[in-house]
Amino acid sequence: MKLITFLYNSQEIVGAITPDGQKAVPCSELGADYPDMETLASHISDEELFGMKEKLAGFNGGIPLSEVKILAPVPRPSRDIICLGVNFKDHAEESVGVMGAEYGGERKYPIYFAKHVNEAVPCGDHINGHFDIVTELDYEAEMAFIVRKDAVNVKAENAGEYVFGYTIMNDVSARCIQMRHKQWFRGKSFDGFAPMGPCLVTADEFEFPPELDISCKVNGELRQKSNTALYIHNIPYALEELSIGMVIKAGTIISMGTPGGVGMGFKPPKYLKSGDVIECEVQGIGKLINEVK
Fold first, then answer.
1. pTM (whole model) above 0.90
2. Residue ranges of domains in the chain, CATH in brackets
């Protein structure tokens, strides 16, 4: 089931997309009345979710998508997004030239960092390039997931129980800022640096852990192409490790890293400029398309 947050008559509504992909249906009309996506993800039961899906399959009505504005699935995350860095082998290899030899070779342990998001940019909206201070703007197509219940000492074999659904995130990065500070928080957290969407697909739609094609085009040129089966550290590993000694709260978004083909990996680099259009795609979820401004 594809879930969305959308704006209709000046009201922010959590809903689902009809199976034909043409209409939005408020979740309240499907027997699940929640104020926002985080609350739904962290409180809905399996029975409620199954009931929603059944009602949606035979639902008559809904609002044409042409009459609503689709927002990011979680427009304003209540906590920082947890991200995995350099989590594909080909991205690790291309990072060596910019970030140093320590980012190449065997990745015994993941790199985790936080990405602060005041408001996630929806599909179709502009990315603010902050070109007054940013000279090296980059894209990173990623699959992210939202945690459905507090994760404490999770075992990898049980990790699927903690995943509510999946979405796409473009981990927009100011490489000049990222490298200047020798850590990644600021260079990845400028306002507008977290395009997300277009929807959240519930976890039951995929095998676990999902093995999905992921790609990115810039102005129609294919830059990134891989599959989530090629993560160096997969979702079960990350949930087990992160939940030891630290509670991962329900509603937390975790983004799993980007494959090779980012702008900094080219010689010369292919950084973004105003007017560039980035199209991030994950199989079974959709396309996240944004223009840099």
1. yes
2. 2-70 (no CATH), 81-292 (3.90.850.10)
